[in-house]
From TrEMBL:
Pathway of action: Amino-acid biosynthesis; L-methionine biosynthesis via de novo pathway; L-homocysteine from L-cystathionine: step 1/1
Phylogenetic placement of the source organism: Bacteria, Pseudomonadati, Pseudomonadota, Alphaproteobacteria, Sphingomonadales
UniProt-recorded Gene Ontology molecular function terms: cysteine-S-conjugate beta-lyase activity
Matches recorded under InterPro entries: Cys/Met-Metab_PyrdxlP-dep_enz (IPR000277), Cys_b_lyase_bac (IPR006233), Cys_met_metab_PP (IPR054542), PyrdxlP-dep_Trfase (IPR015424), PyrdxlP-dep_Trfase_major (IPR015421), PyrdxlP-dep_Trfase_small (IPR015422)
Cofactor(s) of this protein: pyridoxal 5'-phosphate
Reaction(s) the record says it catalyses: L,L-cystathionine + H2O = L-homocysteine + pyruvate + NH4(+); an S-substituted L-cysteine + H2O = a thiol + pyruvate + NH4(+)
Protein name: Cystathionine beta-lyase
Amino acid sequence: MGLRPRNAQGDGRGVSENDTRKPLTKLAQAGRRPEWTGMPGQPGGIVSPPVWRASTILYDDVAHLRKAAATSTHERLFYGRKGTPTAWSLADALTELEPGADGTMLFPSGVAAIGCALMAVLKPGDRLLMVDSAYDPTRNFCEQVLRPWGVETIYYDPTGASLDGHLADGPIRALFLESPGSLTFEVQDVPALAAWAKANGVVTLIDNTWATPLYFPALSHGVDISILAGTKYIVGHSDVMIGSVSANADWFGRIRQTAYLFGQMVSPDDAWLASRGLRTLGIRLAQHRDSALAIAHWLKDQPDVARVLHPALPDCPGHDLWRRDFSGSTGLFTFILNGDDEAARAALIDGLSHFGIGYSWGGFESLALPVDPARYRSATRWDAEGPAVRLHIGLEDPADLIADLDAGLARFRAVRDGGRA
Ligand SMILES: *Cc1c(COP(=O)(O)O)cnc(C)c1O
């Protein structure tokens, strides 16, 4: 394999249009530029860019220092806050995976990435349309940072049915999507929403953490800015917090400048671990997908399960859109129990032996979480037959996980029916 710079300038720009490599090939090759894996004047190179730890960068003389300060610091050693090749390699790899992206900035968490992307596109007086099924901390950022700053957030139905009505009340600056939605997994018509936004001069951002660009290349579907909580599937091992924002040529400069102004950066060790995770994203996602699908189908047939909210199942809202736009599903979904009984749900979860109880997801290990979507709704109503459990299906054998859930449903039944008797 030739370890070439990505284009003649070696600045990582402008190659995505003629890049015919498939995503799995990109995962193996991306971000491995010779200047990051070799030593000048020496033959050969190592496979993965190493951890470059730095705050101070030393210059040869005053003229060199002045020249460095006067030129772009993008992917150049300048000062530790602007990163080192370890972070640039990861950012570059994420750009390669997102056709249409001009560049990627990294952040210390997914929430930091969401906040900075919103601050980059909005200013006081602007109005933001936020999907009602958004990740709860995204809503908190809108209410507790953007609103006091003078930005109005309007929550919209994930189907997008009411968008023209909101436009009638005044101009909209930005449309934020998350598809499928957090907790409830509604799939949005991203191409239609992006086209609507383009026609109305509205910038589009998406939280694409669930699918990753591997299963849903968001910029190819018309979105301007794509955000990942890399903490989840990019890292894949539940041991690093990291976030990313990839943007098209219209927006990348603004995203980069805002990230610099806020002093946002990631530690080289965290970037390195995320890069290591990225190499196996393809095979991990395929296993998460297959195991989660098997378990979702099994759950759907259980009499104590009212509904399974999984985009690849036909009764998930937006399933047809998922089939049209996505090339895969991943390991995270929710199921609704029959019978409104909190204690019974806790009995189900507490006794599981193969599922951890905890926030986050995307690691190799399975997790179960009680979720209450109705708390995080304002534009739409969330009604369900009973309490909800969100599962992240890890890389364990799905037969073990099904047996564990089967025993859990028996505990649910015992507490629910015992309580009623
Ligand atoms: C976890 C998550 C985030 C936030 O990521 P952190 O790295 O935990 O800050 C954002 N969006 C979605 C959909 C998530 O699940």
